[in-house]
Model the fold of this input.
Amino acid sequence: MPKSMLADTPFTTFTIPGLILLVVVGGTQLASAMLLVKERESALLRSAVVGFGI
Done:
């Protein structure tokens, strides 16, 4: 992706936005998957909410 997409943002590279996406999106997906593996009662609802978030 061209760096011109970052023109009106506080970022100069895609590293920090990428890390934010990794933590926010990836972290919630990982937490959701762990709840599903542990067979928690709220796992399906949380997975659906995280899925809609994407």
Observations:
- The mean pLDDT is 91.
- The CA atoms of residues 2 and 14 lie 10 Å apart.
